[in-house]
């Protein structure tokens, strides 16, 4: 799949899956094959006491841990959708998910 087509297809598929996608783009240079997906931070799920800090910031807070867990679930879902639409493969022997990376907006 051509790069521009691929990023457009992934963005549309993520939207179709109800994922709040901000940007999909390919890396350049030595990371050329990587596809980067930027998602909106799910602030509606954030901890009321600590905002959108994550569990590695507040391991003592259940709501922060739940927020981090929710982000992991969204991250996995986005990867699965992207793998499916691109035909990229996730090799169980590596941790690179078909060279697809998900980032949450700061
Ligand atoms: Zn908290």
What does this structure look like?
This protein has 106 residues and is of the alpha+beta class. It is built from 2 helices and 3 strands. It has a 3-stranded mixed β-sheet, covered by helices on one side. A hairpin with an 8-residue loop joins strand 1 and strand 2 (35-39). Helix 1 (3-16) packs across helix 2 (62-86). The longest helix is centred in the C-terminal third of the chain and has 25 residues, at 62-86. 19% of the residues are buried. The mean pLDDT is 90.
Could you describe the largest sheet, including whether it forms a barrel? 3 strands, mixed
Q: Helicity level, as a percent range?
A: 25-40%
Low-confidence segments, ≥5 residues, pLDDT <50?
A: none
- N-to-C span: 30 Å
Order of H and E elements = HEEHE
Averaged pLDDT: 90
Structural class: alpha+beta
Shape: elongated
How would you briefly describe this protein structure?
This protein has 106 residues and is an alpha+beta fold.
Element layout with pairings:
Blueprint: H1 3-16, E1 21-26, E2 35-39, H2 62-86, E3 100-104
Helix pairs in contact: 1-2
Bound molecules: zinc ion.
Note the main attributes of this structure.
106 residues, alpha+beta, three-stranded mixed β-sheet, 2 helices, binds zinc ion
């Amino acid at each position: 799949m051509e790069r521009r087509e691929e990023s457009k297809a992934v963005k549309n598929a993520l939207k179709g899956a109800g994922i709040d996608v901000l940007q999909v783009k390919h890396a350049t240079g030595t990371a050329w094959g990587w596809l980067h997906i930027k998602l909106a931070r799910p602030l509606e799920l954030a901890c009321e006491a600590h905002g959108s800090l994550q569990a590695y910031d507040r391991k003592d807070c259940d709501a922060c841990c739940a927020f981090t867990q929710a982000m992991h679930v969204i991250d996995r879902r986005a990867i699965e959708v992207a793998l499916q639409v691109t035909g990229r493969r996730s090799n169980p022997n590596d941790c690179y998910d078909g060279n697809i990376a998900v980032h949450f907006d700061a």
